[in-house]
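job 3f2a | input accepted
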Amino acid sequence: YEVVSPLGAGGMGEVYRARDTKLGRDVALKVLPEGALTDEAARRRFRREADALARLAHPHIATIHDFDSADGTDFLVMELVRGPSLRDEIEEKGALPEKTVVRLGTQLARGLQAAHEEGIVHRDLKPSNVQLTPDGLVKILDFGLAQLLPREAAGEETAPTVTAIGKAAGTLLYMSPEQLRGRGVDARTDLYAAGAVLYELATGQRLFSKPSTAELTEAILNEEPKPPRELNERITPGLEAVILKALDKDPELRYQTAKDLQVDLERLQQRTRSSAVSGLQTSGGGPTSRSHDTHSPRSAAAATADPSAPAPDRTPSPRPLWQHPAAIALLVLAAVAATALVMWNLRPVRGDLVRFTVEVPRKNGWRAGPGAALSPDGRSLAYVSPNEAGEDIIWIRPLDSLTARPLEGTGGAYLPFWSPDGRSLGFFADRSLKKIAVAGGRAETLAEAPNAYGGSWSNEGVILFSPNLRTPLQRVSVQGGDSRPATVLDAEQRHGAHASPSFLPDGKHFIFSVDAAEGFAGLYVGSLDSPDIRRILPIVSPGVVTDDSYILFLEDGLVRAQKLDMQSWEPEGPVFTLGEGAYQEGLPNVYSEAMSLSVGGNGSLAFRQGKANRRRLTWFGRAGASLGGVGAEGSYESPVLSPDDSRVAFGRDGQIWVIDLARGGAEYPLTSGATRAMYPIWSPDGRSIVYPSGPEGSMVLHRKPSNGTGEAEALQGMGSPFSWSAGYVTYFTTHPDTSDDIYVLPIDGDGGPRPFLRTEAIEHESSLSADGKRMAYVTEESGQAEVYVETFPRSGERWRISPSGGCQPIWRRDGRELFFLALDGTLMAVPIQTRPRFEAGDPEPLFQTHAQVWAARNSYSPTRDGQRFLVNVDPEIAVWKTAVVLNWREALADQ
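job 3f2a | predicted structure (895 res):
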């Protein structure tokens, strides 16, 4: 960990911003103050904080990453929360709007409930220990004084706890009366502190303002706080009642659980006007409360009447409540009301705008990430991640749970999507479109889909899908049968791909992405009843249309929403922003963004998050030792070294760039303009670079001097090049009837391109040896990518190189080794013997590259002697991040 700058300090530790150099992320690093290093009690408390955090995994509690000791200094590594604390918010803004108070309080209660369920009482909750993310998400920090209890005793009193003789643990202003007296603490202690925090948020003033510690202690023990509405008349009686109930000096009359507090705040949030239900829940403390309305001095019913009215008598009724016929009737009514409230909560309601992130472990490869799909009711997320055996499968995670369950029978899955009733999932695996029941069972194959880019399931029993990137969208019945085209590729507009279909609520119309010539690419609408299509937006993005006619799409890393006229198909009105940090490639395209946006019921939204192409070109030795980087972290696509290792060419934002390594790493553009260019390869003498240019699906090969001067020359051939040796450029192109095929182009001689390998299987990533005698390539004929070598021209001799999957083969310049990536990202080296005959030795693993295995082109480039490797390192290789937004329509009102 590299310490960057101080963030703050206090009695429980000093906090620094630091850089995790192994995983390439910013973290918060907390160490004990220098004077506490010899204080064993302080070190035990510090360790207790780590133990407490290790029990917790919740969106509203800062995550612990590590706990260790270096040179006698204990340190704790935590999630870096970049926003202000609640103390900062109060000092800057004073009293916050009630809507904001309720939203923050609800999240605070959720975090406390998670801690209490794990047997952890915070004991030092205060505004400075609650921080906000840039999205406004509450994060509870600093569990240095936390009391760890057996999990089953989370709600029971514990023995007294002190930090020194006669000194109770915590911060005085936020201590509960029982905490001040040194008595045992439980979850209700934290709820008193939560009430004090809510009091400050709602009024802008502290609970008690006293000049001395003695007077403050007396006030906490014996004085009633000033009613919040006297300090801020905009506070509603309902919120005042919630705050005062949390601050009751008698723990038995306070909220009994954080869940009770959360429920009451959610009632306020949903603006439920039923006085019967509101009175029941707010005054009674929820169904798990141990106190009754008649025992509470501050019921919601009293608060919604005259705020100055005297509190009810605390004297208990002489007869048990259940012996009164009137009380029985009231309880029946209350039960009916509570049942009605539960049913109401199952409906889509406008509630709190909530944002959180789900991190999905992944392997090296894009297929393990995109495709997180929300269920139609908005309550569950389906995503793809490896199981214990390392196989990608579908997982189902309820949004109100921290755990997911595997969906067996989905090995090799990618891009899942839900049926309208939420009972089944469609997905792609084994070059096919499949479906499976969410409850489990056998997956059924519906249609061929060798290289799919999205699917959608209509309420009319039709599945629309993109089987590969050179055919129109296809439709098939959910019962199976023959599939047939649902769209038509427009040759004049040079349509290269139709992808990411999404049905509209009517089950007939759908929107999809079209990659085409300049001026024609964008987001289109089509219909099952007609071949006609119409462009809605000039943005190549996945899209979703909601039942209230909003179209959601991605633009410049933002999730956007705009009203859509369902007759003219024209967007109208303002464009709203619903989320930030959406993953998009430097130049949007259908390849990288398929199924990266999903909308569920109840106003839920999910999108893939992350910095697109934030990679680092890094030198490695054969043993995997890092030898330093090239340039800054940024966007690098398909880097390839020049034959003399003095320069590196790569793609960035749709253009070709060159870094001159021999001149201090200076960069210069090889191409410029509106036309897209990518995937550079060098001539054997280093004087020229060949690259494809044009719209996806119809990119023509071009050649240009490598110094960037002169005009580009268009060549015969359309596709993506991989190598240039012995007078030939090798590349792959795609035909609708045979998928990806390998071609060669004589670069200076007569004749046009000709196929080297053209079959029904997918073949790509071809590399011709320097002497022009052997071609290494990747084929998926076995169902997974494997590396083979054949003679060139083909003579029928073929050798399999990869034992269990591989891609991106590259020859060493002298032909004595062939390198490739195993499917887990490990760089492999294969010794090659050519005399008296060709023989390939056993592949030797060199090191784990943490590079993109499924990148369209080189993720690494070897030097001519094969002793060093320039690797395009992906710093986010460990996880995909899916951002989830609940009640996204609330964001519209704030813009």
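job 3f2a | The two ends are 40 Å apart (CA to CA).
job 3f2a | closed
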